[in-house]
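Protein folding task:
====================
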Amino acid sequence: MVKKMSFLSMIVSMTFLVFIFNACSNDLEFADESVSSEVVVPTTRTVPTHDIFGLYETEFIAAQHEVAGKISICNDYENVYVTVTTENGWKMGLTHLFIGPKEILLDPANGYVNKKGSPRNGHFPYGESFDPMVESWEFSLPLTDLYAMFGLEFDMEVQVCPIVAIHAEVFKEMEDGTLDGQTAWGQGEKFPGAGNWAMFIEGYCTEFPPTPPTPPTPPSYKLDGETAWAFDNLEHVYNPGQTGNWAFYIVYAGVEETCVLYAGQKPTDMTVTLTPAGEGKVKMVFKNIFEIAPENDGKWVFQDTTAAIKVQGYETAPSGNPAPGQFTYYKGRELEIVVDAANFYGIHLDVAKLTVVK
């Protein structure tokens, strides 16, 4: 069961890394004057997608009363995310963000509020300025860092509920082409300081569904590679009497014939069947040769090459040491092929005996 931590019962002592932005030490709303339209270069950022747990959403408010967009807060198994998306023509030029324990945010000693409790948003620890302006912004913080703010090691069995205060400078293009600039805050509870409408967000807590099962480790393989040749007669060798070469060729009589494949000079259960295909063609069908896969443990498989099968046809019986890499009738790894008819064939394969390593 998830255990929720009580903030008021905790004594937290820490110092945030502070990024100073060009902003007032106290929150001040923009004046009514419009801003020159020369700074308008609108763009839209693409917000990354991720798992969404513990989703909390609230409105993004500009000029105290106008909805300027939406704020969402959520987490996955690694990070907490704060996403701001504007709407109704508003765009962001600057953001300031605090996320962490409420006691840290509201204690003037930490510098995020003044002595009266009004926010010093320019001193919030996170944020970004935009040139050109944007319509969406996502901030992510490692959960290990978030939990450290509460004096905790990250633990999915422990739930924390940070405060989020998000401030932005937002702009909307007016009918005359100028920009209306305003202060915007995430909808929530008002800061205790009098004379301002700034808000912080309560309601988000970390949430973790059951950890997804660890995917099984892909199997590893041992491949005992061999050279294989189609065989029909012990006398049909390319280079008889020569050591270091045992390559076979077969005699094709123009009728269906099945030949055993020898691998490592020994017969196997692999075969190739030759059948007349008409119009000067011959069909070859290979059997008991497989691809590398767990279910083919102990079987003969093709080696990892695009030309695992090489075929050469001859009008007269070949002699000398063959060069399979120069065979021209066929190169590939299909189990059923059609080649030009010939009186003799050299059929060479790159195969291996597969062992799945548990």
